[in-house]
Design goal:
Two copies of one chain form a homodimer. Chain A has helices at 13-24, 26-33, 47-53, 66-71, 86-97, 107-112, 114-124, 140-147, 162-172, 177-186, 195-198, 201-215, 234-244, 309-329, 364-374, 403-414; strands at 3-9, 36-43, 61-63, 77-80, 101-104, 128-129, 153-159, 225-226, 246-258, 263-275, 287-294, 298-305, 344-345, 351-359, 379-383, 391-398, 419-428. The first copy, chain A, is an alpha/beta fold. Chains A and B meet through helix 2, helix 8, strand 12 and helix 14 of A and helix 2, helix 8, strand 12 and helix 14 of B.
Chain lengths: 430, 430
C-alpha cells in the first residue's frame, strides 16, 4: 500500500490533537484513501518529551529546529502548527518551493504573505491548504474553493472571532466587559494578551484571507477598515437589545460588486447591530458563523466552533486528506483561484450608531446634529438616557451614510468642547 | 485550450438555470479551470424550442430522447435533471458504465439506486456527484465527503424540506395547516400533490442519502422510521411555543454510534419539538439547515435555501467544476467512501409528545397513564386544556423512552374505547 509521508511542526494543542486523530483514525484513512497516512517526523521545542507522551513509535524523527524539518527528504506534506510568523513562513516557503504540499492553521501567515505563498506554490507545483485558519472547524474555505467556486460570491461576512463573541454574549447577560474578558481568559477562550482579538485585528486577518480567496487578489489586512469592541460598554449592548431590538456582534465582512473586469470590494471589521431575527443574532458564546451571499445559491450560513484543538485539528486533517487524495490519484490539487482583476476598494453606505458623553447643557445637541447635517448625514433616532448630572449620554442612529463622511463628522463632533473624547461607534446591518 | 464536454438532460427550472449560469460564467470557468466548459447537447421534450429561448448556438445538439443522449460519443459529463426515476436511472447508469462522469439533483434516484450507482461507478472508473440532491444550494455533501471526511461523524440531522418548514412557520403565526399549504402552493414552494413532502417521504429520501454517504453502506429509505406533519394542528404548534417553550420542526436525522467494526445507526423523520435557543429553531420559512456533530469539529450547522432553480443550479455547477478539475488534472475524482461495515440499525430513546382527544369523563386519564406505565414509560407533563364538553384534548410529554415501546403503548391507548383515533405524536429534541 502506498504511503503519504507527513511531517508535523508544532506540538501545541492543535498539533497534539492532529497527531492523536491521525493515529486513532488510521484504519479509516487507509480504507478511504487506499494509502497510509504516515507521520515521518515531528518538530517541537520539546519534541522528544511530547512524542513520548503521544506514544509515537521510535522511527518517527523528533526534531527541535523547524529548519531541519524543512530540509528533510521524502516528505509529501508539511503540517505547520508552530504559531508566530517567521519560522512558519520560512518552513512553508521551503516546503512549497521544493514541491511539497503544506497545511497550516496560521491566518496571520496567510493574510500577511499571500502573494509570496502563491508564488512558491507556482514554483513548486505544490499546494498550501489552510482551512483551519478561518473559523476553526467550519469548512468555509473548502466551500468557497469548490462547492461555490462556480457561483458568483457577492458577500462573505460573519462572526469570525470566538473570544469577542463570548465577551459580547456575557455583556448581554449583564456582565461588564472587563469581567467578561476575565471569564473568557479563565476558560481558555481568550489569550493573556487579548489585544489582537479585542481590537479586531484577528478578525481583519480572517477577512483578508476570505477576501483574497474570493477575489483571487491579495487583500492586505491593513486595507480592512477595522474597529474592535474595546469601546463597547454594557450599556450599548443593553440599549441595542431593549430599545433598538438589535444585538451587538463583531462582524468581519467582504462585499463584492462591479463585474469580472472591474470588480469592487468593500471590507470592514466593526461592532455591528444585527436585527434579532437575523441568523447571526442567535450565534452565542464562542461560536463562529459565516454568511455567504452567492448570486445563484442565495444566502448560506456556516456555523460551528471557531477555535480549540478539536475543531482546528479536524480542519487540518480534512486538508491532509484532500492533499493525500490528490497525491494518491497522481493529480496536483486544484491551484489557487486566479484573480480576474485587482478589485477597486470601495466603501458602501452604512447606517451608524454613535454614543457620546455630552455635557448636560443647552445647545450641545444642536451642535452635534449640525455637525452631522453639514455633511449630509441624516439622523434616524436620538436618545438621551438620564446622565449623572454633569454629563449625559447621547445615542444617535443615522440613516445610511458614507463611512468616510461619517468619520469626518465624528471628528468634528469630538472637537466640540462640550463632548468627551470617549465614544462608541457601531454599524447597523440592514 | 482543452474542453470539458457536457450534455444536459432536462431543461426545466434547474436545467435552464444551469445552462444560463454555465454560459454567463464562461470566462470565469475558463480562467479557473484552464479549460472550456462546453455544452455539447441538451435533451428535453421541447429541446428545440427551449434551446432557442436560451440562445444556444446551432452546434449544440437538441435531443428529445434521453436514450439517444446516453449513446452520444465524446461526452465527458452527463448532467441529469429530468426528474422521475426510470429515465434518469437508465441515463446515468449508461453514462457511468461507459466511463463518463455524471451529475444529478435527483435524491429519489440516489436513495433508491445507491448500490447500483456505486457498482456502475466502479465498472466505469467514473464518478457521480449529487450535491443538489440534499438541501439545494447548501454544500453539505461536499463538506461530508471532503472537509469532514477525516473526522468521525456522530450525527447528521436537520430541516431538510422547505415546503413543510414553510407550512410550520405559517402555523406558528396562527394559520391553519390547509391554508398554509395553499399559500405554499401559491408561492411555488409546494407541489400540487404535496403528499411526499407532508408525509416525510421526501425527507426520508434525503436522510437515506446522508446516512449512506456517512456510513458508506446503502441505508434504504424505507428503513428510515418516518412520520410527517399531516397530523400536526395549529394548536400543537401554539402549545409547543407557549407552554413548552419549544418550536415544531420536521427533522430528518441519522445518528451513528458504536465503532468502525460494529457501527450502529439510528435514522428517523419526525416532527420534533426543538428548544427555542437551538440553532435549528430560528430556521424559518423555506430555508433548510443541517447540523453535523463530528467527534473533533464539534457541532456544525449549514444553512441556506433548500430548493429553487438558483440554489440547485449553483450546486450542480459546483459538481461540474469539481469533475472538470479532476478531468483536467488527469485524476479520477475521489471515489465514493467505502463502508467499514454495514451498520446495525438501532433505536435510541427519545422523549415524546402525544396529543389525544379523549371523552371528557372520569377514569380516562387513569387508563391512559396506566397504558404508558405498564410499559415502563414515565410521564413528564400532562396538560388538559378545556375541550368542547364532549371531548377534551390531553397532551402528554414523556421522559426518554424506546420508540418501539412508545409505539406499543400508543396502540394500547388508541384501543381504549374512550379515545379518538385522531392523535398527534412528536419527538422532543434533547
Amino acid at each position: 500500500m502506498p504511503s503519504v509521508r507527513i511531517a508535523i511542526a508544532g506540538l501545541g494543542g492543535v498539533g497534539t490533537e492532529t497527531v492523536r486523530l491521525l493515529r486513532a483514525g488510521r484504519e479509516g484513512f487507509r480504507r478511504r484513501l487506499g494509502a497510509e497516512l504516515e507521520i515521518i517526523a515531528v518538530c517541537d521545542r520539546h519534541a522528544a518529551q511530547k512524542a513520548r507522551r503521544l506514544g509515537l513509535p521510535a522511527r518517527v524523527l523528533r526534531l527541535t529546529d523547524p529548519r531541519r524539518l524543512a530540509a528533510l527528504p521524502g516528505i509529501d506534506i508539511v503540517v505547520e502548527l508552530l504559531g508566530g510568523l517567521d519560522a512558519p513562513r520560512r518552513l512553508i516557503l521551503t516546503a512549497l518551493r521544493s514541491g511539497r504540499h503544506a497545511v497550516t492553521a496560521n491566518k496571520h501567515l496567510i493574510s500577511h504573505c499571500w502573494e509570496e505563498l502563491r508564488t512558491a506554490q507556482r514554483a513548486g507545483d505544490s499546494r498550501l491548504l489552510y482551512e483551519a485558519s478561518v473559523a476553526g472547524g467550519i469548512p468555509i474555505i473548502n466551500a468557497l474553493e469548490t462547492s461555490l467556486a462556480a457561483d458568483r460570491i457577492e458577500a462573505v461576512y460573519g462572526i469570525l472571532n470566538g473570544t469577542t463573541n463570548y465577551i459580547l454574549s456575557r455583556m448581554r447577560e449583564g456582565m461588564e466587559r472587563p469581567e467578561a474578558l476575565r471569564q473568557a481568559q479563565a476558560l481558555g477562550l481568550a489569550e493573556r494578551d487579548p489585544v489582537r482579538d479585542l481590537s479586531g485585528q484577528d478578525t481583519a486577518d480572517k477577512v483578508s484571507v476570505l477576501a483574497s480567496l474570493v477575489t483571487g487578489a491579495w487583500i492586505r489586512p491593513y486595507l480592512v477598515r477595522s474597529r474592535g469592541i474595546q469601546d463597547i460598554e454594557r450599556q450599548d449592548v443593553v440599549f441595542a437589545e431593549e430599545v433598538l431590538g438589535r444585538r451587538v456582534k463583531l462582524l468581519g465582512a467582504a462585499r463584492l460588486s462591479g463585474n469580472d473586469r472591474q470588480p469592487e470590494l468593500e471590507t470592514f471589521v466593526s461592532p455591528t447591530l444585527i436585527p434579532l431575527d437575523h441568523p447571526l443574532a442567535s450565534v452565542q458564546d464562542e461560536f463562529n458563523a459565516i454568511m455567504v451571499r452567492a448570486a445563484a445559491a442565495g444566502d448560506l450560513m456556516f456555523y460551528g466552533k471557531g477555535a480549540g484543538p478539536g475543531p482546528a485539528a479536524s480542519a487540518v486533517l480534512g486538508d491532509i486528506l484532500r492533499l493525500g487524495r490528490a497525491l494518491v490519484s497522481g493529480a496536483s490539487a486544484s491551484p489557487p483561484r486566479p484573480a480576474a482583476a485587482v478589485p477597486r476598494l470601495a466603501d458602501s453606505d452604512s447606517a451608524f450608531y454613535l454614543r457620546l458623553a455630552a455635557q448636560d447643557r443647552p445647545g450641545v445637541l444642536c451642535a452635534i446634529t449640525s455637525a452631522l447635517g453639514r455633511l449630509g448625514i441624516s439622523i434616524s433616532t436620538i436618545h438621551q438616557p438620564a446622565g449623572d448630572g454633569r454629563t449625559a449620554p447621547v445615542i444617535i442612529t443615522t440613516h445610511a451614510a458614507n463611512p468616510g463622511t461619517f468619520g469626518r463628522a465624528l471628528r468634528d463632533i469630538l472637537a466640540l468642547g462640550s463632548i468627551s473624547r470617549r465614544h462608541t461607534v457601531m454599524r447597523l446591518l440592514s
